[in-house]
Amino acid sequence: MLDTPDAVMAALRENDARPYGRTRTVTAEELAEAADQFEDTEIRSMALLELMEAYEFDGERTKTPVVFARVLKLWDQDPDGFSEWARHQVFWRFKWVADALKENPDVPLAAIERWHTELRDRYRGADFDLQPYYAQRYHLAAQTGVGVQDAYELWAARPRSEMSDCHACETRAAALHFIAAGDDARALDVLVPVLDGRSGCEQEPYLSQAVALLPLVRQGRLDEARSCHLSGYRYARGKVAMQAAIGRHLEFCALTGNEPRGLELLAENRDLFAYTGEPESRLAFLVGVEVLVAALAGAGHGELAVSGPAGSAWTVDTLLAHVRTEAEALAARFDARNGTDAVGDARRARLAAEPLLAEPLALGVRATAAPEVAAAPAVAPAPRREAEPEPEDFTDLVLRARELDLLGHPDGDRLWQRIAERVAAEGFTHPEDPRLGSRARLHAELVEQQAHLALERDEYAEARTGMLAAAELFEQAGLPGRALMIRARVLVVGLDEDEASGGASDGASGGGEASDEAAGEASGEGEASAGDKPGPDWPALDDALRRAEELRAAAGNAVEGGMTDDDYLIVLQSRAYAAHHDLVEALPEPSAETTARFEEAVGRYRETAAELGSARRSATSRQYTADAAARQGRLAEAVAELRDVLARLDDAELPWHTPRVLGLLGQVLLQSGEWAQAAEVFHRALAEVSRWGDDSYPYAPTYMMLGHACMQTGDAGGAVRALSEAAARFDRQRGGAVEEAAQVRLQLADVLRATDRTGDAVAVLESVLLDAGAAGLDVRLLAQARLDLARGLADLEEYRDAAEEYLRLADVVAGWEDQETHTMVACEATVTLAHAGRWDAAEAALARARQAHECSPQVDQLAGTLRELAKLTVREQGPDGLDAALARIAEADAVAETAARLGQEHTDWYLRGASHYERGRCLAIVDRHEEALAELELAIPAYEKGGDQAEAPRAEAVRLAAVIEGGDLGRTKAAVARLTAAIARCEAAGLPDAVRILTDLRGRFAE
C-alpha cells in the first residue's frame, strides 16, 4: 500500500534498483501519481525525478520536458523542500530537457533557444559556471550545421565545471565533432581515456565504442574495431536508450562485409522499431538499418527474408522501402525545423559510404543468419598477381587449360569454367583440329572437371559418381589410360573425409599436394578411428598399377591408346596416398607390413617421378615422407625434407605448389616448439596462397595453427586475428564445420580473457551457445563453453547471468561419471549466487557441491568455496554475520582434516594458511583487529610450510597484517618493520608485484 510517505519512499528506492525498461517506467508513473496525494515536496520531487529518469533511459525522452515542468514548478514554490541530492538534480536535468527538445523535430527552434536562455539564467542565478550552457549551444549547432566551429570553440575553450556532462560523454561529443570534420585520427586520440577505461559512466565506454567503429576501420586499426564491436554491442543489445549505437553497429557490419552478423543484430533488436519516443536516436537507428539492407539489396538479395517491425513479414526490398520512407521523412522534419539540410545531408553521407574492406573482417563470433549472403565477400579481393590470360581461339584455350592441369596451376579451373561456358553456348561447334581431339574427349574432360570441384567441396559421393562417369566417357573416347587413372583415383577418394578438407581431396584428385592431413591433425581430427570405415582396396589398387604398366608397355605414353606419364604417376600417387593413410591409421605402432608397404609405394612414386622429370609429383611424394616422419616424432628429419622440397619447387618455377608445403612445414615447426618460425611460415603460406588464389587450400586449419603459434610467442593480437579468421573460415565451409568453429572460438575466448578483454570473450562464447546448431555439438565442448562463459560473466560482475550459466551446467554434468567436474561447477555456482545476493540458491548449490564432493572429492575447491562464502557473509551482514562466517571457515577446516584422514588429495599448507587468513580478514571487517592480527600471525608460518610456491600468499598475509597493525591499531613502526622484512623476502623470491605493493604500503606508513 502506498498510503504513507515512507511507503512511497521505500517503493522509490526499490524501483531505483530495477534495470531501466518498461517495468521500471510503469512503476515510476504509478509512484509519481501516488506521491501527489501528499503535501510533501521532498516525496513529490523524488517521485518526479525518478519518473524523468525512467523516461530518459527507456526511449521516451520526449516526455521528460513535461515531467520537468512539474519539478520546476515545485522548485519555484518550495526549494527548501528538496533534498540536497534533488537540488543538484534539478539543475543537472536542465540539460536533459535541452537534449530532449533538440531531439524532437516537432519542437520549434525558437522554443529550444528560449530554453537555452532559461538554462543560462538559472545557472547564473545559482552561481554555476556556464560551460554546460555553451555545450548545449554547440550540440544544437552540430545538428543544424550553423556556426558549428564557433560553437565548438566557445564550449571546448571553457574548463569543465560542477554541472558539466560527465567527462566520458563530453569526450564522445568532441570526438563526433572531429569525425564530422573528417579527422578520424584526432577523434580516436580524443576517445583514448574512454576506450581504455579511465573515464566512464552508465553508458560509457559503450556509446564511444560505437562511435569509434568506423574511424578505427578507416585508420586500419581492425583489432580495436573488432573489440569495440564485440563488447560494445553486447551492452547495447536490446536497450532502447542505445538505439543510435545499435544503428552504428549495423552500419559497421554492412561496411566490413559482415552482413549476416548485421541481420542477426537486426533480429535481436526488432523491438526497437516500436519505440518512437526519441526521434533523433530513432533516425540514427533507422539509417543504420537502411545502410545494412541497402547493401544487401545492392548485392542482389532483395528477396531475402529479414526481421523488421512486428506484425508483418519482411524482405530486404520491402524493409528497405519502409525504413527509407520513414528515415527520409524524419530527416526532412528536422531540416524543416532547423531551416537547413544538415540532418538530411548526414543521412545521405552515411548511405553513400562504400565498403571499407576488400574482404570481410573476421569478428570471432558465429553468424548463422542468411548463409547465402556469407558465401562471398561483399567486395572481391584485389588480385595479387596477373591472372593467366584466356586465349580467344577455342583450341588454344583448351590446350592451355590442359597445360595448366599438367602443372597443377590454380588458373586451370578458371579456364575450364570458361571452356564449359563456351561449349554450352548456343551455336557452339566443336573445331576439327587434331590438337584438340574429339568432342567425346572434351566432354569427358568437362565431366572430370566437375568431379574435381565436388572434391574441393568435400562432396565425396558426388565426386565418385562424376569421376566414374568421366572414366566411362574416356573409355568410349579411346583414352583407356586416362580412364584407368581416374578409376585408380576413385579407389582413394574420401579415405580421410573425417579430416580437415584438403588432404583427401588433393591426394584423391591427383592434384599433387597430399599432406593437408597435417592440418586435420592440428585441428584435433588427424587420428580418425579406422574401426568404422573400410581402408583402401589394395587388390584393386595393385590391379590398377598392373594394368597401367601393361598399357604403357603396349602403347607407351600416347594419349590415345596408351597412358601419359602424368596419368601413370597419378596411379602411383593413389597407391602412395593409400599407404600413407594406412600408416597414419596404424600409428603410433604400425606393423612392419604397413611400414614396408608405405616405404615401397612412396619410394616407387618418388623414384618414378624423378625418372620422368616431374618436379611437381616428386614434391608430393616427399610430402608424404615428411608427414610420416613428423607423425612418428622425427621432426628434424621432416623439417629438412620439407625445406628441400621448397627449394626444388623454387628451382622448378612451380611457386603455386609451395603454400601446401609451407603449411605442413609450419605444423612441424609448431610441433617442434619453434613457435616464431612456425608463425613466419604460416604467414608466408597464407600470403602465397592468396597470391595464387587456390580456393581448395585449407585456410581455416592454417589460420587456426597460426593462432596457436602466435599464442605461444606472446603475440596476443596476432592470435586473436588468426583465430577469428579461422572461425569465420570454418563457418563458410560448405556443409559447415560447426564443431571445428566452436573449438576455435573457445581458444579465441581464452586468449581474449588472458589479455583482459573479458567482454569480447563473453560475446564470442555467447555466439557459440546461442547458435541454433549448438545442440549438435559435443556435450563436453558445450560444457566447456558454458563454464568459460559463466566465469567470464562473473569476471564482469554480471553475477546473476553467471549463476544461471553455472546452474545450467551443473544440471548437464550431474550425470557424468567423473563427478569432479560437478563438484567444481557447484562450488563456483555457490560463490556466484552469493555475489548475486541469492543466498538461498547459494545454500542449495553448496549442498549440491557437498554431495558431489562425497563422490569425487575436490578438497581445495570446496574449502575455498566455504572461505569465500565466509567473506561474503560478513561483508553482507557485518557483525551479525560473523558467527556464520566463522562457522563456514570451521567447516573448511573440517573438510581438510577429513581429507588428511582419508588420504584424499589436498594442499595441506595452503588450506591451513588460507583458513587463518580468511578468519583474520572476517574479524578485521567487523573491527575486531587484535583477534584479526593474531589469526594472520598464524597464517604467515602456515604458508611458509609450502616453500617457494607459498611466497605469494604469504606476502598477501603480511600485507593484510601490516594494514591492520599500522592502520587500524596505530602501530606503524611495527608495521614498517614487518613490511621491510617481507619486501626483502619477496625480492629474493622474484615477486616484483608483491615488492611494489608492499613498498607502497610501507611508504604510506613511514610518512
TrEMBL record:
Tell me the segments the record calls region Disordered. 499-541
Q: Could you tell me where the Low complexity compositional bias lies? A: 520-532
Residue spans with biased composition (Gly residues)? 504-513
Name of the protein this chain belongs to: Tetratricopeptide repeat protein
Q: Which organism is it from?
A: Streptomyces sp. Y1
